[in-house]
Amino acid sequence: MPRKQPTEEELERRKIVGVNAETVTDVTSTDFPGNWPGEDYAWDIKKIIRDTKIEFHQNEPAEASFSLIGVDASIANAFRRIMIADIPTIAIEKVFIDNNTSVIQDEVLAHRLGLIPFTGGREGLDNFMRWLPKPKDNEPIESTYFDYNTISLELRVTCTHNPNAAEDEKDPRKLYNHAHVYAKDIVFMPVGRQVKYFAGENAIRPVNPDILIAKLRPGQQIDLSMIMHKGVGSDHAKFSPVATASYRLLPTITILRPILGRDAENFAKCFPQGVIRLEKVTKAEAAREGSGYEGHASELKAVVVNPMLDTVSRECLRHDEFKEKVKLGRERDHFIFNIESTGQWESDAIFLASIAHLKEKARKLEQQVVDMVR
Amino acid sequence: MSREQYQIPTGSQQTFTGGAGNTAATTSREFDTGIMYYTCGDCAARVPLEKGAGIRCQKCGARVLYKERTKRMVQFEAR
Lengths: 374, 79
Ligand SMILES: [Zn+2]
What we know:
- The structure holds 2 protein chains of 2 kinds.
- By secondary structure, chain A is of the alpha+beta class.
- Chain A has 10 helices and 18 strands.
- The two termini of chain A are about 40 Å apart.
- Zinc ion binds near residues 43, 57, 59 and 62 of chain B.
- Chain B: Keywords: Metal-binding, Nucleus, Zinc.
């Protein structure tokens, strides 16, 4: 028996997550095989290529924002999780403290050093640097240290009095030399082929040179060396390439019946700036029967212009004058990603790397399924 | 970064390495004489004390002395 295929409107309606004053409805997706009688939702690569869209809103090295449209939450969430936990960066992993007479304790200092984001030449980081292999049994861990998996750094700072400081100087940074220890005081010690890969502007360096590591007073000293390895965020957050990688669903605001005059002004105030615009009711609209605008020509009406800016505060649902006039929701397959890089990668490159990573995971899974059947 | 077994430092101990080379050398010399160095709590001077000597800074006379930090390298995980 042939069944009626759903209309465009019906398909649009199925995509909307309802956001009400106290409840959220229709949170799960319904576009999978066997859910709707007579409708085929079998996995189809052509359909995915046709329906999936990516639109960038902002693309800067430190922050990128884009919409990923037409995919299931499982895919969008996989990208998010891969960006946080599976894209590798280098970070300080071991700290060898020869001397530390500062007020900050050794272990706290080591922890702080580990969290400093570093960057360097892309070619060296991507293609030259490799994972640190596990040492064989009863072999010391240093036996696996090579120029392609270990980067050496040093931090050697001693605080002294500044003889040239003015007598009434109060600022410790002028009164003493090296009163503040910054990330820029860390010195990169290249070995082997690192000299070639991390030369000049490609040198391994802190992304933000002005990160304060410790404060010293005359006579105090920090004297240590460090090593860095490649790692992933699932091991420790210091290896995560992103400060945030998150998504939200595109909000929808549907005005069911006209909101006019003072109500329209109050309605616009329920949303962040730029979401609602006040427009004059045209003569044509006022003349049309059943439009709800009859007799309201040249009055102000509320028009939704940019729901993407909405924070979905639901403020408009608290006021009786908007009852039955507005419906809030979210589009279930429209993910607005926001990615902030810690600096080792460019933000958009992290997303591209996450796609490559998911592909690689799928390839490995496919091989394992093939092996299982064999 | 030597990985030798931990040895309790004693006055007669000669083989005491670890940390930066030259500081280790001075340390073993200091151990030879049986003198321990402390830091004055008041004036931060380095105070040598012999066994049984009164606990007092020779510079300012303060009676609070701090033990010096180890000269050996200490390894930490940056986590
Ligand atoms: Zn003293």
